[in-house]
Specification:
The complex is a heterodimer. Chain A is an all-alpha fold. Chain A has 16 helices and two strands. The chains are: A mainly alpha, B alpha+beta. Chains A and B meet through helix 3, helix 7, helix 9, helix 10 and helix 11 of A and helix 1, helix 2 and strand 9 of B.
């Protein structure tokens, strides 16, 4: 392999670590020294792929935890898991899926594609990029080490005080939770800084901010959300660590602390986090729907601006997680209204995506399948979200299975379906190989049927009064049958994921066959080879609009010039 | 503000609001899903091949739909605010009828006017709005009996107030609704609503001191109860035992169920519990005393004699 080192060159930075810059293909895991090159890599494509492998690995772990939960709840009085083990498993399931699956999955896609889509050869800070990844990875490993250190955390993924304090959680599980999340939080802050700097400083000549592909725009907006949200979480995590390790009492009411203070810290992070996981999915959907409708997105400016509105509003809605805490009527009213307001820009986005289908020429590919499922299920999740913003309704259904259903509609129906769409859409670019459409359909239908079976029914279970986070439940009318059906749905999802993994595995074993631009798309990542060489671009097409490749392919009918 | 309808209970108010919401949300969802299906069908490649016109969108559509969404939001914001005011209408100096304290994993119940104390067995009179004071002795719990009122958390260090109301006599089931540790699942609530007369009789009975049956096994059990340090945690009114760490056991035999509605109160279940509490409700704070069979006979006779 040919290597050129960015050594001391006049007017350039002196890199302490040799960064390979080559026109060759990325080193392969199969070639001799490939493995070491991957581990030491600062290349955004390799780091993006490592983020995705990390997410995939923890998706298997978190998914198996979900299967254990559903096995235990299949019928009343089941004894697959002891109460202690059940509480550890549901805590780890939530923490894993949020911090170690959805986060690294979209961060991985963004790390890979933001530089490509803005016509850059790498992120602004390649070594910070590597540090962010390894911090996230280390955080995940430490979190799971808790199983070997006497027991995983068992106080729920939002770890409410004082249950999470040493008096009530005596094992070291919560300490590993705190340290693990502090590390992934540092990784996320690093990634956010990197995205912002990359978008501001590394754009190709001519690409103005209002010409960014919507995925890049949403990652950009999202990075500002992360910069404000994760320090808040880390502050809270450190305070609790001090409580537990140094006998402080920030969150211990018995010695003058406040149990509710933790909730303000956690949800002050936690609600922006919901949008941190949703906005990148919105971005993917905003790329996929236009490409497969063969027309530009309906209302680019509205999609872009409503993302900013969502980001700003998302800071002022956290206490809707705390309606049952007993805040004053004035507080509850403020947070009810601010939470409902967020429905307006979100609803506007859905209108724009549906509007993009209109008068298009729709190609039914797997990415589009998932985008359509996203539109339906995320709309449902958004609507049930508004019902939870209506404080009196929340007082009845919060902390029941209705809430479990709602959050899975947002995180799966929203974030995960967006990520699936992104993976099917960009897989040919990342690997040079096309995922099988036939297996993709199996994955899609098994997963969609299972998902809606499990989680639509859980709305009803919640309305019937079943609380969340219980390892067993009394045999009240319909509870047993609804739970059994929900568990059957989980088996469908499990089968769907097995097909998905098989699809990835079997496709990666094949030869590279895909052209550079298999979807006939319009953004810059399709202007380089599949997969791109270490140096992404030697030359770039002229950039005068939001769809530079459209202009190249249709010189007789180019988009309106924006620069 | 809407006029206060005295005959509309809090549960009904919330129910009505939910119905309005479900109607609005179903309409919105039907429209979104309908348009998606219609467009997918009408503009699929085989029907509409080639490169379509490169349309950019319509400001008119965006702005008018934003206005519709804003109006709908405003309507529900208004309904939400007025309902909050009505449902959570707590007086300046609240005089709660009962104080309920959440413990890991049982409920301590005080009747503030009469001074009656019980555990897990919650009785209320029908036809009367009842103000509860909610507290916690350890971690956060949440009191929720769906058919009597909304849920409200029990926060250590705070006192929350909640109205509940039962129209008809009967048993109302509820549950702790904030995850509170190992046995959160078995921290269920059963509220017995009685006519005011029946309630008064029940309450008067709870206020009576415990009467000895005079049975020798009962007396032996009483002796054991004191000797084996049960009294370090459990109070029995009318005796010298007043520690309130575990459930108050006065008139235990008058309770239909125990362990926070987990088990039916009968000799067999009480015996199993005393024999090995961790086997019955794993994680519970009750120590395993390892009683002999004879001791179990006496303790069960004593506890089930506390009528």
């Amino acid at each position: 392999m040919k290597k050129r080192y960015a050594n001391i060159t006049e007017g350039h930075m002196h890199f302490l670590i040799d960064i390979p810059e080559s026109d060759d293909q990325l080193p392969s895991l199969k070639s001799g020294h490939g493995k070491l090159l991957w581990i030491s890599s600062v290349d955004h494509k390799q780091l993006g792929i490592m983020y995705l492998w990390l997410a995939l690995f923890f998706f298997i772990v978190g998914g198996l935890e979900a299967m254990l939960i559903r096995a235990q709840l299949s019928w009343p009085g089941n004894t697959v898991l002891s109460p202690e083990m059940y509480n550890q498993i549901f805590t780890m399931h939530g923490t894993t899926m949020i911090f170690l699956v959805l986060m690294p999955a979209w961060v991985g896609l963004a790390t890979y594609f933001v530089p490509l889509m803005v016509g850059a050869n790498d992120m602004a800070f390649p070594r910070l990029n590597a540090l962010s990844f390894w911090m996230t990875c280390l955080g995940g490993i430490l979190l799971y080490f808790s199983f070997a250190a006497g027991g995983a955390p068992a106080a729920g993924w939002f770890n409410y005080a004082p249950l999470s304090e040493t008096n009530y959680s005596a094992t070291q599980g919560v300490d590993y939770y705190l340290i693990g999340l502090i590390l992934t939080g540092v990784g996320s802050i690093g990634a956010a800084l990197n995205f912002i700097t990359t978008v501001i400083t590394m754009r190709a000549p001519g690409m103005k901010l209002n010409m960014l592909p919507l995925f890049v725009w949403m990652v950009f907006v999202n990075a500002f959300l992360m910069l404000a949200a994760f320090p808040l979480l880390n502050a809270g995590l450190f305070m609790m660590l001090i409580d537990r390790q140094m006998d402080a009492h920030f969150f211990l009411p018995s010695s003058g602390g406040s149990a509710i203070l933790w909730q303000h810290f956690f949800w002050g992070f936690g609600h922006p986090e919901v949008y941190i996981l949703a906005l990148p999915a919105f971005g993917i959907i905003s790329e996929v729907i236009p490409v497969f409708s063969r027309r530009p997105i309906f209302g680019y400016k509205f999609v872009a601006a409503s993302s900013v509105a969502i980001a700003l509003l998302s800071y002022s809605v956290w206490a809707h997680h705390m309606f049952a805490v007993g805040l004053s009527n004035a507080m509850n009213s403020f947070f009810a209204i601010s939470s409902m307001l967020i429905g307006i820009p979100t609803g506007l986005k859905i209108i724009n995506w549906v509007g993009t289908l209109r008068k298009g020429s729709i190609r039914f590919t797997i990415p589009l399948f998932f985008a359509i499922a996203f539109l339906n299920d995320f709309t449902l999740g958004g609507l049930s979200g508004i019902s939870l913003a209506i404080t009196p309704i929340d007082w009845q259904v919060t902390d029941t299975y209705y809430l479990v259903a709602h959050l899975h509609f947002v995180f799966l129906g929203g974030s995960l379906f967006g990520i699936f769409a992104g993976i099917y859409y960009w897989f040919p670019k990342m690997s040079g190989k096309m995922l099988s459409k036939k297996l993709g359909k199996w994955h899609f239908w098994l997963f969609i049927i299972g998902f809606n079976l499990t989680f639509l029914l859980q709305h009803i279970l919640g309305i019937f009064g079943m609380p969340r986070r219980v390892y067993t439940y009394p045999d009240l009318p319909y509870w047993a049958s609804l739970n059994l059906l929900a568990s059957i749905g989980a088996v469908f999802m499990f089968a769907g994921m097995a097909v998905f993994f098989w699809n990835i595995y079997s496709t990666l074993r094949k030869e590279r066959t895909v052209s550079d631009d298999p979807w006939n798309a319009w953004t810059l990542e399709w202007a380089t080879s599949s997969p791109p060489p270490l140096k992404n671009f030697e030359v770039l097409p002229p950039i005068h609009s939001r769809r530079p490749l459209w202009d190249v392919k249709n010189p007789e009918n180019p988009d309106k010039r924006l620069n | 503000m809407l006029p206060q309808f005295l005959d509309t209970t809090n549960v009904e108010l919330i129910h009505n609001l939910s119905v309005y919401f479900i109607v609005a949300a179903s309409t919105v969802f039907a429209l979104v899903a309908g348009f998606i299906i219609y467009y997918l069908f009408k503009y699929r490649e085989s029907k509409n091949p080639g490169t379509p016109e490169q349309l950019e969108g319509s400001q008119k559509v965006e702005i008018s739909l934003t206005i519709v969404a804003t109006l709908l939001t405003a309507l529900f914001a208004y309904l939400t605010l007025t309902t909050i005011q009505k449902v959570h209408d707590i007086p300046e100096n609240p005089k709660p009828f009962m104080t309920i304290t959440g413990h890991q994993w049982w409920w301590e119940v005080h009747y503030n006017e009469s001074g009656a104390i019980t555990a897990n067995q919650i009785h209320i009179p029908t036809g009367k709005k009842i103000l509860l004071a909610l507290k916690s002795a350890d971690v956060i719990h949440s009191f929720w009996v769906q058919k009597l009122g909304p849920k409200l958390d029990m926060i250590p260090g705070n006192t929350n107030h909640l109205w509940i109301y039962a129209e008809k006599p009967g048993e109302y089931l509820g549950t702790c609704s904030e995850f509170c540790g190992t046995q959160h699942a078995n921290m269920r609530i059963r509220v017995t609503a009685q006519s005011p007369e029946d309630f008064k009789n029940w309450q008067d009975h709870q206020l009576n001191p415990v009467v000895s049956t005079g049975d020798s096994l009962f007396l032996k059990g009483k002796h054991l109860f004191e000797q084996k340090t049960c009294t370090s945690c459990h109070a029995i009114n009318g005796t010298s035992n007043t520690q309130n760490i575990g459930p108050n056991l006065t008139h235990f035999a008058s309770r239909k169920r125990f362990l926070a509605d987990m088990k039916e109160n009968n000799e067999e279940n009480v015996r199993a519990w005393l024999e090995n509490p961790q086997h019955v409700k794993h994680g519970a704070r009750m120590p395993n005393f390892i009683f002999s069979d004879n001791e179990l006979d006496a303790l069960v006779a004593y506890i089930d004699g506390l009528k």
